[in-house]
Design brief:
The chain is an alpha/beta fold. The protein is 25% helix and 21% strand. It is built from eight helices and 18 strands.
Length: 340
């Protein structure tokens, strides 16, 4: 009998309504089968563990990611798969971070949540949870886990964790992965895209329990007052900076902006360029407005999501000390986060 561990961090999916007060509150996961009796029909051994103090996902921090890695490391040899119940707002950030922090993963780590509390009659939480558990337990003809990576399951679709983003606050189809196909689609049966699933080249899983917080993010917009963001370009505060640019990686030819970028890189800062478009890839130098980036050493993030770009820098800056190696690895597809 395969063993699955549910890890509850907080979020909408774990809420039930107090019929006396009408307030939403977290339910006791020791009584999970009372809320989702369908889980008892699986020929699985399902255990659960919760954060000591479940949080709204908007409160998620790098320390909470470390907590998740520690839970998975402690239980890795005892369980066949892991399902993390997580608020949807920052789920893509957590999934991206865990994909790097669990390098060498050979078991499924599936994040899921819901738009409506699990105690609500029309909740999407039950289906999301039930199918996430089924995916976490699924094996191929050799008995190996079908999914061996960090993934997000939401509303009938399984996405690579570092390739998806939340796109809707009010639709059940809350996530999309525009630059990478779905790993699986749940219909009458669960159809896996076997040729799209990630397989590690590492010999063992590496549990990384540190991430660097000193990474800045700036989203360009027409008429941006560059001086207002001067502190972001201070390499003593931010070791790296993600810039969300226009289209295929373009930025205004503003001398002040270019001076900030140049000085920052000369001071040892790393700049990673990602597009603010929901799909597509950065192609630095394709237009004159991005050729400056090529000249001064801005790194193309290709088709990485913003969430993956931030997580990759937070991970590399915490685990590598050689700036040239960090820059080289930013170009390298480590855990399926960019297209080769």
């Amino acid at each position: 009998m395969r063993k699955i561990l549910l890890i509850y961090t907080g979020g909408t999916i774990g809420m039930v309504k107090d019929h006396r007060t009408g307030e939403l509150r977290s339910f006791n996961f020791n009584h999970l089968y009372e809320q989702v009796p369908e889980l008892e029909r699986f020929p699985l051994e399902i255990s659960s563990v919760s954060f000591d103090h479940p949080i709204d996902s908007s409160e998620m921090t790098l320390c909470h990611w470390t907590d998740l890695v520690e839970i998975i490391e402690k239980n890795y040899q005892h369980f066949d798969g892991f399902v993390i119940l997580h608020g949807s707002d920052t789920m893509a950030f957590t999934a991206s971070a865990l994909s790097f922090m669990l390098s060498g993963l050979r078991k499924p780590v599936i994040l899921t949540g819901s738009q409506l509390p699990i105690g609500t009659i029309r909740t999407d939480g039950k289906e999301n949870l039930i199918t996430a558990v089924e995916i976490a337990a699924a094996t191929d003809e050799l008995g190996e886990p079908i999914v061996q990576e960090v993934a997000v399951y939401f509303e009938y679709s399984l996405y690579r964790g570092n390739r998806c983003s939340k796109v809707s606050a009010n639709q059940f189809e809350a996530f999309q992965s525009p630059n990478y196909p779905e790993l699986a689609v749940a219909g009458v049966t669960i159809e896996y895209a076997f040729n799209k699933l990630f397989r590690t080249q590492e010999n063992e899983v590496i549990f990384t329990k540190k991430m660097t917080a000193s990474v800045g993010l700036i989203r360009l917009y027409p008429g941006i007052p560059v001086k207002s963001y001067a502190n972001l370009f201070d390499a003593s505060i931010n070791k790296a900076l993600v810039i969300e640019t226009f289209g295929a990686g373009n930025a205004p030819s503003n001398p002040e902006f270019q001076a900030f970028i140049t000085q920052y890189i000369e001071s040892g800062g790393i700049v990673l360029n990602v597009t603010q478009c929901s799909s597509g890839s950065v192609k630095q130098g394709a237009y004159q407005t991005s050729s400056f980036f090529e000249k001064v050493g801005v790194i193309s993030g290709k088709d990485m999501t913003t969430e993956a770009a931030l997580a990759k820098l937070q991970y590399l800056l915490a685990t590598e000390v050689n700036p040239d190696k960090i820059k080289r690895l930013l170009h390298t597809n480590l855990v399926g986060e960019i297209s080769d």
